[in-house]
Design a protein that fits this description.
Elements (H helix, E strand, L loop, with lengths): L2 E3 L1 H9 L4 E6 L2 E3 L1 H10 L2 E6 L4 E2 L7 H23 L8 H17 L6 H4 L1 E6 L5 E9 L1 E2 L9 E6 L8 E15 L3 E15 L2 E6 L3 E4 L4 E17 L7
Parallel strand pairs: 1-3, 2-4
Antiparallel strand pairs: 4-5, 6-7, 8-9, 9-10, 10-14, 11-12, 11-13, 11-14
Protein name: Ethanolamine utilization protein EutQ
Pfam families: EutQ (PF06249)
InterPro entries: EutQ, RmlC-like_jellyroll, RmlC_Cupin_sf
Length: about 240
């Protein structure tokens, strides 16, 4: 049974002179009110993942544990960016966003299944009031494409229906793999690096950096590269994964 960490628990810790408390994820759940009380009282909540390094500033730890902690904190930041990217700016309170981020992190830490694009892909972005969205390409972290068999196909959706778009866009990359795919949607691929091979009906279209490929709806093809490939895709409609 999960332990609930309430605002009263934080007040008690503060009254006892404690400046920090440790909890274990995912065995404990910290309420939104508890986090706000902790911040107001100056009580630091230190979160420990089961069988994972302590979540704290790396300056407080020895060199042997600093790297894992930095990696975990970077993962938290990436998850936060992914969550924010799916929400209209200012629509959700910070404490609720914080809970969502830590819930995803805890689920990732205890999951034994292969990661998916939705669970892992993350990036930095800014959405203006007008709805215009800018994604920082260098910040994009790939998830894995489902349905590609044993192939390790990296994918990151960066524009989706959640952005109010009728189209979707994202990045894909992999090395030395070919896999079959049937598209129930229109797709345009812009190759950024390497070679993209599209095989269909006994013919192959080969695109290199700077080239553009259009794949019409209902095409049964084979995606692949004999070396490596990285490209930007644009798909219509935005819910291409559900088509």
């Amino acid at each position: 049974m999960k332990q609930l960490i309430t605002a009263d628990a934080l007040r008690t810790a503060h009254a006892e002179g404690k400046t920090r408390i440790e909890i274990t994820l995912p065995d404990c759940i910290v309420t939104a009110e508890a986090r706000m009380v902790a911040e107001r009282l100056g009580v630091e909540i230190i979160e420990v993942l089961a069988n994972k390094p302590l979540v704290a500033s790396s300056s407080l730890l020895g060199a042997a544990t600093a790297a894992p902690v930095v990696e975990y904190e970077a993962n938290l930041a990436a998850i936060r960016q992914a969550v924010l990217a799916q929400l209209p700016s200012g629509s959700v309170p910070e404490n609720v966003i914080d809970q969502l981020v830590r819930k995803v992190a805890a689920e990732q830490a205890t999951s034994t299944s292969a990661p998916t694009a939705a669970a892992v892909a993350a990036y930095e972005s800014i959405t203006l009031k007008s709805g215009i969205k800018r994604v920082t390409g260098s910040s994009v972290k790939m998830g894995l494409l489902e349905g590609a068999g044993a192939n390790q196909i990296g994918i990151a959706d960066v524009i989706t229906g959640a952005d109010g778009s009728t189209m979707a866009a994202g990045f894909m990359q992999w090395e030395n793999s070919f896999f079959p795919w049937t598209l129930r949607y229109d797709e345009i691929d812009i190759v950024l690096d390497g070679e993209l091979h599209i095989r269909c009906d006994g013919e192959t279209a080969i695109a290199k950096a700077g080239d553009v490929i259009f794949i019409p709806k209902n095409s049964s093809i084979e995606f692949g590269t004999p070396s490596k490939v990285s490209f930007l895709y644009v798909a219509y409609p935005a819910n291409w994964q559900d088509c």
